[in-house]
Amino acid sequence: MMNHTLKNLFKVNPGTVIEGKWHGNRYTIIRELGFGANGIVYLAQLGNKYVALKMSENGMNITSEVNVLKSFAKVQGDCLGPSLLDVDDWLQKGRMTSFYAMEYIQGPDLLTFIEQKGSSWIEVLILQLLSDLQQLHENGWVFGDLKPDNLIVTGPPPRVRCIDVGGTTIQGRAIKEFTEFFDRGYWGLGTRKAEVSYDLFAVAMIVINIAYPKRFSKTSGDYQQLELMVRQKNQLRKYEPVILRALKGKYGSAKEMRDSLLMLTMNEPDKKKPQSSFHANNAGKKGTKLSRRTYVKRKKRWGVLETSFIVVVITFLYMLYIYGQIQ
Q: Which of 10, 177, 281, 295 is placed for a possible disulfide with 145 were both Cys, Cβ 3.0 to 4.6 Å?
């Protein structure tokens, strides 16, 4: 975290106009949005548009984050992170301060949204997040400081978006920023090296955090403690195989973890419904097990079923979301 002395150095009062030295854009400060080790973020107004403006005394940090945002834009439009709008310097009282302006993403954080709309949204939003992480990882980056505070749900339709890219790190390097609860090093389950499994561990901890909104303290501080906490919550039991595997670092990609979660979600209703007449009539007969031909046919239909399932779920939840907004 940024110390208070440094924060006071960059304290900008509401109504202050920040004018870029090079591009001449004028930003009117409205209020502070947050601060961290690499700078302070303000809500500002540029003309009739709201933007998020980040200031820092360290121009290298600004350059690094700007490069991340540019990379995000190349990967998948504006889904991964906020779009970059401007990069400039502000000269005030002989001191030069670097800043950049980015899209202001509005909406509740992930935990607040799920608390308001219900746990049925967990699968949809986590599946979205894993898809975005897959794109990020394929382009050589690790998000690093992945936590609910950095995930905003926009919409309608609801869409999870990543903010605060200050912890995003090139794969293979040391993680720049982290929050202990979501950091595998804190739990003794891996290093702070920027790799795919680091982010996927954090995704598992985010799901755990949904069931424990106030989080919990480290006691034994190992895998056994996390496993116990997962099994103590009914809300987490349906996701237990995916969570535990991610905590152990057993997933090689975000796509692999996404596929596992999707399979759990699709199979879960089958456990609750009775056997079909086909299976009942053929119980104990030759052919009860899937033939290779049947398996291949089902495997080919997997992609279609996956897409159809997601569309149906999102459509249904979106209708509930719209109904809730009307009420």
A: 177
Q: Per this entry, what is the length of the chain?
A: 327
Domains of the chain: 4-103 (3.30.200.20), 110-270 (1.10.510.10)
Alpha helices in 89-195 (DSSP H): 110-117, 121-138
Global confidence as pTM: 0.80
Taking a C-beta distance cutoff of 8 angstroms, is the pair 141, 190 a contact? no
Q: Classify 172 as helix, strand or coil.
A: coil
261's CB contacts (< 8 A; 6+ apart) are 123, 126, 127, 130, 239, 242
Q: What residue type is 241 in one-letter code?
A: P
The per-residue pLDDT for range 203-234, each reduced to its tens digit, is: 999 999 999 999 999 999 999 999 999 999 99
Residue 194, CB-side half-sphere exposure with 13 Å CA sphere:
21
Q: Assess whether 145 carries a catalytic annotation.
A: yes
250 vs 90: CA distance, rounded Å? 47
Residue 291 to residue 287: CA distance in whole angstroms: 7
| Residue 211: count of CB within 10 angstroms of its CB | 17
